[in-house]
Amino acid sequence: MKNENIRNFCIIAHIDHGKSTLADRILEKTGTITDRDMQEQVLDNMDLERERGITIKAQAVSLKYKDYKLNLIDTPGHVDFAYEVSRSLAACEGALLIIDAAQGVEAQTMANIYLALEHDLEIIPVINKIDLPAANPDRVKEELMDLGIDPDEALLTSAKEGIGITEVLDAIIERIPAPEAELDQPLKALVFDSIYNSYQGVIPHIRVVSGTVKKGDMIYLMASEKKYEVDEVGIFNPGFKEVDELVAGEVGYLMAGIKDVRNCRVGDTITNYHKPASKPLPGYKKVQPMVFSGMYPTDNNDYKVLQEALEKLQLNDAALTFESETSEALGFGFRCGFLGLLHMEIVQERLEREYDLDLVITAPSVIYKVEKKSGEELEIENPSNFPEQNEIETVAEPFVKTYISLPEDYIGAVMKLCEDNRGEFVNMKYLDENRVVINYHMPMNEIITDFFNQLKSSTRGYATLDYEQIGYRESDLVKLDILVNKEPVDALSTIVHRDNARKLGESLARKLKEIIPRHMFKVPIQAAIGNDVVARVNIPAQRKDVLQKCYGGDVSRKRKLLEKQKEGKKRMKQVGSVEIPQDAFMAVLERN
Ligand code: GDP
Ligand code: MG
């Protein structure tokens, strides 16, 4: 049986192709929000998301159109959140695939098509921004044909000017299949997202696949093995709107006093405790952090504040992990785990903005797998814990497959960049006459340096990068240590390939010389592999007091200078007798 009056769909697009704008027009057209409430891009609701123009947390909304209930499920737009995307897609039967009429098919468009096909979704291609003078819908149609999508099915829209929106809504009803609805089967509901609210706790967003769920039911989370009594079920309207029950085929939320996000992870299956399903929905995966870095308050007194802030953020973010760690150089802080670099930046920014914390953050690291000669196996997520060279039998590091899309003029520059970063060429495909996608196998370790910035600058911003994990490989890696004033600074240690170690050591020492301010005494900086010093430079002693420059007289200028000096002190960390600015910890990432 099918639930004939429901359509569940998502919108997938390369960044900036108009997903949020089209979603807004759809909400307007269906009267889901009145004009007065209409704030641009309702679905992107965190400040950070607005500023960065990306969707971090997925959102869902139920719309009424003609006699149908349409559930629009938003998906996060960044590779760090690939698993969340896959669960959101699993909650749908169809997808609007948005392509910018001027930009055409991009790397992310292709990745999205593959994902949608993997989940058996009906794809409705939407060529957006047809109002632009540079719009070329015919060229986009050709590109679609090359990807095996029937160009005659493409709809033309301008989300900005509200053109073609009705056609999109009609296509959703006509082309996307109604959901299967096995009402008399035991409850199975997919958790595709969740939010945290201090009153109701964790509120899972669910797609009911079979059975029904209502207030008073005893539910059971199959992966977490936890049971709860349901306090409320409802739909997104776009706020919470309570309903009597959610039945197979529907999308909505439930509240059940779930206090800990870790007990209700994305991808889990909710069933009925008294009448359980025999097996969970496929595809559950516990997301694992891929990138780790140390977070330290610049003021050691803020340690407790940082801990509480991390605990609060974690309530809403099951992928964030942290545990306390001590650095000889930086004092007490936390080792935090993230899905990727963007996730790391988001957490950092929220800690600084919402909790007014001043942080020193160490360079991100992946997890290395080390087998010692003794046979002991270690997983190392903090370079300073890397064993001594002579104890190591093998080291393995995570590799990714990259999808880099770029105009063909830059092929040479990008291939060189990938090869300089230990990339192994896999293949290259033309998307059209002048755009290609290049695949490389690369160590994740190289991707989390400033690779992305270099990629952008060597293609004048025209390249895009995506990647997926492909597992661990053995590599000849060593730990590069930095000694400041003859003391090793553990937080500046990094893991690098042996062949590049000397060169990187030299350039890092040179950079630190620029970044670390002069002190009253000479500060030597050394880079070393084990006992082998590969580079050394000296920061000469400071000669004059900063105020001497003011020739005594001008008081306000003096004050300004002092204030400036004070500002500069922020984000500095006293290490032994030397003050090291935050930039130093990130300089480790620059690989040229
Ligand atoms: P998203 O990243 O896919 O969510 O894209 P947005 O909806 O944020 O749109 C990216 C940019 O393109 C914004 O500046 C929009 O105003 C603009 N935009 C979206 N749709 C259209 C359109 O149909 N025509 C034009 N000219 N601009 C559009
Ligand atoms: Mg958007």
TrEMBL record:
GO terms for molecular function: GTP binding; GTPase activity; ribosome binding; translation elongation factor activity. It comes from the Bacteria. The keyword Methyltransferase does not apply. GO terms for biological process: positive regulation of translation. Pfam families: EFG_C (PF00679), EFG_III (PF14492), GTP_EFTU (PF00009), GTP_EFTU_D2 (PF03144), LepA_C (PF06421). It is an enzyme of class 3 (hydrolase). Keywords: Cell membrane, Elongation factor, GTP-binding, Hydrolase, Membrane, Nucleotide-binding, Protein biosynthesis. Residues 4-180 form the Tr-type G domain. It catalyses: GTP + H2O = GDP + phosphate + H(+). GTP binds at residues 16-21, 128-131. One of its GO terms (cellular component) is plasma membrane. Its EC number is 3.6.5.n1. It is found in: Cell membrane. It is a peripheral membrane protein. Its main location: membrane. Gene3D superfamilies: 3.30.70.240, Elongation factor 4, C-terminal domain, Elongation Factor G (Translational Gtpase), domain 3, P-loop containing nucleotide triphosphate hydrolases, Translation factors. Belongs to the TRAFAC class translation factor GTPase superfamily. Classic translation factor GTPase family. LepA subfamily. Required for accurate and efficient protein synthesis under certain stress conditions. May act as a fidelity factor of the translation reaction, by catalyzing a one-codon backward translocation of tRNAs on improperly translocated ribosomes. Back-translocation proceeds from a post-translocation (POST) complex to a pre-translocation (PRE) complex, thus giving elongation factor G a second chance to translocate the tRNAs correctly. Binds to ribosomes in a GTP-dependent manner. This is Elongation factor 4. It comes from Halonatronomonas betaini. The gene is lepA.
